[in-house]
Amino acid sequence: MRKASGKLAGALALALAVLAGLLYFRFEDGGASVGGESLSFEGPEVDHDPGLETGRSALAEIAEVGPLRSDGETRDASVRLRGPGRLRGRVLERGSERGLEGVTVELLPVPPAGAEIMAQVSQFIGSGSDFSQRVRPAATTVTAFGGEFSFEGVREGRWYLGATAPHHVADAPVSARVLRSGDGGPVDVWMRSGGRVIGQVLDGRGRPVAKAQIALTTSSMGLLEAAADGVTAFLRAEADRDGRFAFAGVSPAEGYELAAIGEGMAITHVLDLEVRAGEDTVVEVRGTIGAQVRGRIVSASSSPGSGAEPGTAPVAGAQVAALPRGLRNLKLAKELLMATHTVTGEDGCYLLTGVPPGAVDLLAMADDHVPARGPLVQVPNSPGAEVQARDFALLRGPKVRGRAVDVSGAPVPGARILWNVIDVASVEGQPSLAPLFAAGMKEFEFPVSDHEGAFVAGPLGGDSPFEIRALKSGYEVGRARWEPGDEEATVEVVLHRGGAILGSVSDALTEAPVASFTVSVSGRIEADPAAPSRFNPFAGGVEFEGEDGRFELAGIAGGEQELTVLARGYLPKRAVVHVPEGGAAPELELKLEPGATLRGLVVDAEGEPIAGAQVTTEALIATAFERLEDGRGSIESALAVKGRRRQRRAPPVGLLRHLVALGFLGEGAVSTARDGSFELVGLDAGPAEILAFHRDYRAGAVLTSVERGDGNSPVTITLTEGGGLRGKVTDRFGQPVRDAMVLAVSPGMAGGPTSNGELHQARSRVDGAYEMLHMEGGPYLIVATRGDENLSIMSFLGTLNFGLVHVPEERVVTHHLVDTSASACRVTGLVTRGGAPVSSGMLLALNLESEGLLGLDFKAAPVENDGSYVFEGLSPGEYQVTFEGDGPSGEFLIDVPDAPQLVEDLELPEGVVRGRFVSAESGEAVQGLRLRLERTGRSGSGGLLTGLTRRLSQGMTGGRGSGGRWRDGSKATGRQGGFRFDGLDEGRYRLVLVGDARSADFAPPEDVEIRVGEDETVDLGTIVLDPGRSLRGLVLDGAGDGVEGAEVLAIPVGADGLAPRRALADAEGAFEVRGLGVGTWKVRPSAEGFAAGSLREVVVEEGRDSEELRLTLVLGLEIEVRVVDGSGTPRAGVACFLSRAEDEATTAAASGSSTFLSQFFSGSNTTDSEGLMPLGRFEPGVYRLRASQGFSSTERQVELEGTGTRRLEIVLR
What we know:
mainly beta, Immunoglobulin-like, 10 domains, 9-stranded mixed sheet, 6-stranded mixed sheet, CarboxyPept-like_regulatory, carbohydrate binding, Cna protein B-type domain protein, Carb-bd-like_fold
């Protein structure tokens, strides 16, 4: 058994920084099966038949051309949501501009790409069919001759138009307003050539599988790029009695994935389907019976009087189902749960059938027990095989009786009662999403209050107090909190009817009424269970038309509500109003400011017009994204989801083109006409950036100044093809690696300026080749990774491979990638603490001997609930493995051989350091003081790497860390001032106060080295903290003026028990650095646009504050470095640093992980394809210039003199 090791190495910093930045984004994933066999690298045999002469009589009837749904069935004109609205339009073919007859056109409440996904998600909220109806088409019609269509008698609102035809696909999302007057049209819907996928589902004996459920989706390994092109597909179909199915209107592309499940067959995948324009792709799906899983459900807490020991009492009548790991199976998750579902017998035993191969989670629920995920089962790829699972223990959960009543106390029958079925927080960071699907179990449905309003809620998941919610159309969501204790108590949930908002809307300049507008309010009470929800950011508003500009909103939740008014040609208007329950708020008079109108053209590099480009502005993007975030926040609040990140007010720059292409901006983006022209209305006056996107070009933008009115000069936006990457993914022996996902992430993706923050994705083909086009020039981090056969999310973390590359502005370059996990050693084992397996966590393995561009290899593996872990592929070498998760962290060293497999068990250390802080002035305990325990006596930048490791691993495990730790590994003292650090390895440590507002009140404690023996507990007793001292002063520029926003850094000299202190200068340049201890400190000012100041030594004395400091910043020299190899060829991706030699030791402690991360992801510390990198501004003096890449590094001394700019050169061999 391997004991924990404390060794850390400095070269890990770069990879950890890279991954910490990437963790902001969660990867999608993507592998396959034909004829029910194991997922293989061989693609299915597929026919492409442009003439529909397939020669397969069983499929002949599907070839008919007519108004089709995505599943190939004829769809008649119909209206689901009736009202006075009207809309006319045409469906046209892009290029020929001819009208298309027989096209099915739908009015959708959400973008077409998300409609089916949201309908599927609704199956797992357990609230009946109401939610799924809200995302279904409001109306359907079929185009006539010339492509014309019309909707009559439809509910007014803002709707998306979905269009489906056998061999055509919508060119771009289109939204329109359906109004009583019909003024929202006419609208043109453009389509381009597409294909169909038709086929038949057969069982293992070749018999048709009637009513089989089929899903056709975009390749998971290319999902992001497909989204950026607007071709993301999530289509569902049901086979007819002969097992036949059809998907119409599929975008031409490679790598489609098809999944099918039906009676008598396990879920089967067919991968690498190619759809060609104007053709049919014919596929045969042949399933197998799957495997069987036996097991037993027991109660983790026995019922009173049963006489059974906890964990041994069998649970009869429990529902059990299997859900394979991985996103590939989730597209048919509901059907998987239904197909494998069974009920336990009196002995608690069960038998699941039709279980697919791979890693499979068991999901169970029972009366009086909380739904939970059980043991992980590895199912062999052997039809009919039987697997024995470990006992599955369910925890009992509390139940509560209650009544749903109105404000008068009268019962409210028919209210849907909701609660948290599981503890959502416990799922975050876990390797399985299975618990989230508990509400999709066959016999589960949330209860409804009876005629007396009575209900029983539970068993309740999570921690108390529990929240019970009641939903019913016409009422505000009712909420009540309950804590176990009085089991006979009845909880009362009160539902409110709400009030009304009345008002008028007029033009702020002319005071004339605005005749047509949309009003949205988050507090609107749902009245129609089939209509778009108030949470819908796309169609949740209410349309008003009338010459008087008046509106009335009934059924608005009481209290303070925010109302938003949108009208074409005007700026958005927000107002806050207090709504009294049962009455009307004071009438509003809302005056809309007319916006500006801007026209322009989108052209290519030759000046030719580009039709179908999407044009928007930064302001319109911010408005649309704010609407999306408000909707998300309202849903999470309504569902009582806790612990989510705060709302953003702008999307990550790297996802802009995806949001635009998928239609998520709604009317915030307009499409260019056939002559490339566009018109934007309702713009705010002032500087504006106009952006244009098209799938065949790199995004373009132009800056302009917009004035109110219609007199703005037209603008022209030129789109070019941009740069690109192509290459091969191979293993370490040079053999091609198929189905690797390649991501290119620019350093500014989360919002920085570099490379416009782009994100690109590609999938390696059979020969390992990949290609990315239409890229912005600049540096990119390249990540190559592969999922397992079922594409479990965590499996991608075990195959991560990194590189850095610079993409030229208008040229495609070659860049090959090596997947070190392919053809490597499979490492398995158990993680234990005190001899018992840990229940969850993450292992991070880092190898410093990699030949990759970053000089290291990084892999991750989840720890399962039985303590087991698997690294699917580690190349030979020494790895540092860090555990983070269930309990204290730990570090290990593993030597991986050049062999097929290694079994390595990991035992976590159990050393402890504890103590207590009190104030010297008051003698009282110091609560809420953040401190960190750091290892001493290490080589390299151990402190930095420890912080980076914790950030990365805790980001993966989705939490703040165990034992109340923050992401930097610090802990806060408790009410009695106590602290405790567990899981410590043998070695030397020191306490460090984290530089936050609380610690600024105290001076650092005396620096004492702490020695911890093997599994030893060290009690430091009571530590007395003296009050902190302050440094005050001014930061001035060369002219003697204050520098607002300048940062002043104070670094302790010879006092390691305190982190560096920082302060920001105010408008006058004044600053105060607090929380200093007696002793020597070195102070340095810095500010954007200035050279960093020199370190100045200051002595803080006992009993008195220091004299006021005057710190001066100068412009200095602007320095750029050029890195070349021995032959003079520029080297890209090299990290460069320029520092004063005498300052390095002092400033090393201040260069924490946040600084490192910000430098990397702003693109400021690696050279480009010309070997160039800006270093910033520096004062004259003698410096040391360092350059490093992987294991190669060099340095030289340079002397800076004078002012202006200077280029330095260094050779890295």
